[in-house]
Amino acid sequence: MRVFHFLKEKVNLKELWNRVCSLEPNKKVKIVVIFLAVMVGLTIISRVTYQMILPKVVMGQADSGTIRHTIHTQAEVKSLSESPVFTTEGLLVDKVVVSTGQAVRKGDVLYTIEKHTLDQMIAEEQGEVNAVSKQIQQLKAESDGNSVSAEVYSLQQERWKKEQLLQEHKKIKRAGYRICAPRDGVVTAIETKAGQKTQGTADVMLADSGQNLTAVVTLSSDEESSYVSQDTIASVSSLDGKSADNLVIASIDNREAEGTIVLNIPLPQSEFSLGQLLSVELNSASQKYDCCIPRSALNMEGSSYFVFTVTAEETILGREYTAKKMEVTLLDKNRESVAVEGISSGQMIIVQSDKILSDGNKVRKMR
């Protein structure tokens, strides 16, 4: 208002109008052109200023598709053809001469038995066999010779067992008190040690070095591993540059008590070696969803999810974009994408913004 009063006092509008009317036609046109040019310039400046304060956004489009779940982990190469190496129970181990992961040939020494205790055991067993044989002879002498008593039969069975054990121990003595590998392979486990007595079970586990190999993967039981199934495709690679793709999962062992899942992935023959560590990529594809969007487009408020869709309107100053807040239901997700319900496939959405948005905000599309 002060500006208006100032102009009214200082400028005689009637006199100014009369002067304009008295101008030549060419000058009148020139003034009009200048006026219009100034107005256009001011409009452009106003438009640019308006655009500068709007949030800048990256737009995308919702589309149908699947959500791929990828897990990167490690595996150890193991053999499906492991077999135990063992001897009789109660022998004192003198020395273990192999280590886990060591390749051995048929006849290589795995561990040795303590010499003096085995010799003593053989002597005692020989004495027991002789004693039982003497008992049998006495009982037979006392019988009529036409039949074998039940007691004699029982003693014969006892003698046979003692002789079997004695022969097994003599065999170990003849081998130089050594327990050797029955075939070529790789030592995968050692269940005994020097100074310990054998249990009659597996003292050493031996596996084929190049056959029936499998990659054994152990995963934690969590949301990510829940997508792993026998439809999951695996790729493996080793530090020496060897790799194999499109491998299938042969078995899935869900060990609930341990909170783990163990996968067995059969490997190509002669590509990898027993005990080797491999890098593993597991790829699982979900069902097909009607609406998949980039994960950055998904927003969370409390326990609810929402996205901003975009509507476009043509105005005299150009195309204007408006953000509209839409609640959605989350169906599936991975690190890059999410599947949602609540918007349509093909609908334009805001993927990224340089400012916090609210429903109804005007936005500027980034080039």
TrEMBL record:
The chain crosses the membrane at residues 31-50. GO terms for cellular component: efflux pump complex. Residues 122-175 form a coiled coil. Keywords: Coiled coil, Membrane, Transmembrane, Transmembrane helix. One of its GO terms (molecular function) is efflux transmembrane transporter activity. The keyword Transferase does not apply. This is Uncharacterized protein. It comes from Lentihominibacter faecis.
